[in-house]
Give the backbone structure.
Amino acid sequence: MALNHKTVRFLDGMCPLSRPQVSAVFRRAKDKGRKAYLVGGSIRDAIDLPTNRGRRANLDFDFAIDGGAVEFAREISDEFAGHFVLLDEKFDIARVVLQDGIVLDFAGYTDGIEQDILRRDLTINALMMDGEKSDEVVDNVGGIKDLEANLVRAISEASLIDDPLRLLRVYRFACARAAQIHSATLAIVRTHSEKLSKVAPERINYELFSLLNHDCSAYIHEMGSAGLLEAIFEELRDCRRVTSNSYHHLALFDHSVETIPQLEAKLPNLPEFIQLSCRRELIPGISRLAASKVSALLHDIGKPATWQIQEDGRHSFISHDKVGAEMIRPLAERMRWARHLGRLVEKLVLWHLRPGQLFHTGEPTQKALNRFYRNVGEDFPELMLITYADFGATMGPGLSGEKREKLEKSFDSLVTGYLTYKEQIQSMPKLLTGEDVMRELGIGPGVIVGEILHALEEAQEIKEVSDRAQAEAFIRNYYDAKRSGR
């Protein structure tokens, strides 16, 4: 099969060959009598198309080279004083990280570049440049046509199932580009979705959270119906057997998936402090927004184990929040999640009912509200985001009309009240320090000191304590009560 060269126009300043490091790789390969090709995203995202405009210049460059890629990468690393990373010696794959943030990946091929192209996942990822001309790409699989049509299409069924992670990558690229997925590619994913469960969780995490950093409303239900979500989170399987009820117009699995489109639709209408919090990185590569979407998807995994249908036909799920939170810890361990990620998801699942519970018996007291704000802490924006998403995905007749309007206003008041609470806390004077507590009570350092300070701050918030004398009396009474077991 001959190589099909096509002339293209690149966005201003985005041609990969304009990077001196890329040109240097081609020169070194030529000097060594080797044939190298630049492949994939750095070409795909630089072509002058409406879907690419506004993108930042790519700093990751993937090269295919005719054998000995590891050895070649070491030479490039030495030439540029880069950091060499051996990715897979068996499959001849290595990486060079340069000081300016540019990453050069090298993979060897042995049976011709034409066959190497056919083993890639998507047509839009199989475009190549041979370094000879700055306005010419090799396109043997129709990648340019699919880019112009904003279409995600697999090169072949074999190319996807050769590495089942690619089944998830189909959706990652569709979300990132707001692209349509080719019908034949969808059929392949549906047929082989269960294979994703055998992929290493670390690899799944990268693709999943990259996907969730984008708007995925148009794709998440399709991912659910294809079986991908259950292949990632086996805890969702049992959710399929829980039916709709008077509060939930959707069966549990569909309700859980629907929270993500509801979340994405609600976020732009929420106050700026919530949007800013969601854009922050929780850990490198994972935003608090992406973590919130996973939490929304998993918020009801405790329901199947707690599901009961009462004699009057009502469905109950007593303590499903606690059961669900307990399920998150082994899930997080299985998925190799970082500690901060696991803790946040566990907390959001545990707390997802609390905002509504505050208003079950009428308007909460200021003391109850302040305690809620204090306990949820900096995760309040994400908790409210999930609360609104859960609420939006719950539209049964039992939660409609005046009842629905009242609850939504209650949620809105929580958001407004949080800002007032934060302003109050920031302006509140510190009446006693830890040293003051130890001196006043005649005790040494320990957990009890922090507990007393926490209780004192709470008393200040609800105006039970307003000066130092009252603070000293408060901590004495608190400590005496602790010692007497009252």
Notes: The mean pLDDT is 92. The chain is about 50% helix and 10% strand. Residues 5-146 form a domain with the Beta Polymerase; domain 2 fold (CATH 3.30.460.10). The first strand starts at residue 5 and ends at 7.
